[in-house]
Amino acid sequence: MQAIILAGGFGKRLAPLTSETPKPLLTVGGKPILVRQIEWLKTFGITDIILAVGYLRHKIFEVLGDGRKLGVRIFYSVEEEPLGTGGAVKNASIFLEEDPFVVVNGDVLTNLSVVKMAESLGDADGAIALVPLRSPYGIVEFDGEGFITRFREKPVLEGFYINAGVYVLRRRIIEELPDRGNIEETLFPRLAQQKRLKAVVFKDVFWRSVDSLKDLEEVDKFFGGNEH
Q1: How far apart are CA 145 and CA 129, in angstroms?
Q2: Catalytic residue numbers, as ranges
Q3: What is the pLDDT of residues 118-162, one digit of tens each?
Q4: How far is CA 164 from the centre of its chain?
Q5: What backbone phi and psi angles, to 5 degrees, belong to 3?
Q6: Exposure of 180 by Cβ count < 10 A (0-12 exposed, 13-18 middle, 19+ buried)?
Q7: What CA–CA distance (Å, rounded) separates 96 from 170?
Q8: 92-124 confidence digits (pLDDT tens)
Q9: Going from the N-terminus, what domains does the chain have, and what CATH number goes with each?
């Protein structure tokens, strides 16, 4: 398989860090997010990486080059203006030679299996990785008499799942992608209505989306205390 990493986002909630560094190059545990993503994809034999880049793309060129030092081949799909996730995938599709292919949001860090996702496709045109929804807040439990019984720090909310920002798609969907717009708001609802989109649930995996300074700090701490 090949992989498209959507690395063109600005990341306003991480300003001022992203005023001079694109969000996918922010470091966690001593390595840029993009490097960690590429290393993760390599564990599944994916060595052809297409980076959809826009904002401060020259910084990404400087850090990653042609990918040789990471043991991969990197192709760059340049966006002169934001195209949204759907437009970005369509713009990058000129580099696609394999079917299916992987799409990853440029701010997601995980160890979930894209091979499992590909194997789940069957006759469907796409698969979305889902992970359990975790409460952003700690939960306080109390009994019928009003006495507090337990504190639970950001528990998983059973039965609720969120889009993990990792997709496996067939090449035949490319012609259905918008020139501009988010795939989650354009193509995916239509595929779901037509029963062409699979859900692949991952419960016991590491997954974080770096959307805020707090997320960045927590992920940096996680990787700083674990093997790189």
Answers
A1: 42
A2: 154
A3: 999 999 999 999 999 988 889 999 999 988 999 998 888 888 999
A4: 6
A5: -135, 140
A6: middle
A7: 11
A8: 999 999 999 999 999 999 999 999 999 999 999
A9: 2-131+161-225 (3.90.550.10)
